[in-house]
Amino acid sequence: MKATRLREAEKINLFFLVFFLLVALVHIREFSSYKIIYEYLLLLGLQVFFIKKRITERRLGWLYDIFFPVVSVLLVFDSMTVLVHVVNPRDIDYRLIQLDYMILGTYPTVYLERFINPLLTDLLQLSYSTYYFLPVILGVILKIRGRQEEFNQGLALILLCFYLSYVGYMLFPALGPRYTMLHLQSVELKGLYLFEKTSEILNAIEGIKRDAFPSGHTAVTLVVLHLAYKFEKRLFYIYTPIAALLIFSTVYCRYHYFVDVVGGVGLYLLTIMISRVLLFKKTR
């Protein structure tokens, strides 16, 4: 298995799986369970297996291109529940709250209480949830249209952004305002039909993680917009209003501080810069 035959997305997945595995092994004595070690090893084994099968048989198609990256991203994200605080036990929420106040002169989630409306809350919660589907829909469209090279480039950027956000969570652990600012909120978020059920589903999927800074929702959404503009212009125009609502929802729905969103924009720019310097030199 020669490195030159690896796709950029495969290199990224292998690199970060090994990286997170090594981080976990360094802190192995602090785990009550070795579950995440086994998960990383399983994902690494599957990645190597799929690479060999792709090179020799070339018949994996959708299973490998769509399903496996989704599983990898979700399992590694789930491992952050344990890994983040083992690596860095000091939350920085108070710093982020201070930065918000210093920049805006107010607490954003408290200020936005004056605009709370059940119908708007439902709309923004639904917009927030589209984060999980925007990258997949773009990938499926590129696959259906037979644009494998564009799909490969897009997958590499999206994986890079996801994994860099996870590194950010380890460096800057923070719970987010829905936990830390609760005592300052005087108006409860309530929807008409969707908010409660959708937030329950998201909480069940995501659990309680220190994943506020940087805002992965912002960064990944901007990367997807970037790719849509580059490869599927019509989809870009459909995605743009959804993305705007999604990014606004991160603060309105109290998942993120304002500076988390700024950090997400920075992560998007970092992802693009790294891709141009290290991944796609010949295609710039």
CA-based gyration radius: 19 Å
Order of helices and strands: HHHHHHHHHHHHH
Mean of all residue-level pLDDT scores: 90
What is the overall shape?
globular
Determine the number of helices (DSSP H or I, runs of at least 4 residues). Answer: 13
Percentage of β-strand residues: under 5%
Question: Percent range for helical residues?
Answer: over 70%
What does the main sheet amount to? none
Strand segment count: 0
Query: Structural class given helices, strands, pairing?
Result: mainly alpha
Q: In the residues, how many domains can be counted?
A: 1
Low-pLDDT stretches:
none
What gap, in angstroms, lies between the N and C termini?
Answer: 27 Å
Characterize the structure shown.
It is a single chain. The protein has 284 residues and is mainly α. The chain has one domain. The protein has helices spanning 8-26, 35-56, 62-87, 93-104, 108-111, 118-129, 134-144, 148-171, 177-180, 195-206, 216-231, 233-252, 258-279. Helix 3 runs parallel beside helix 8 (148-171).
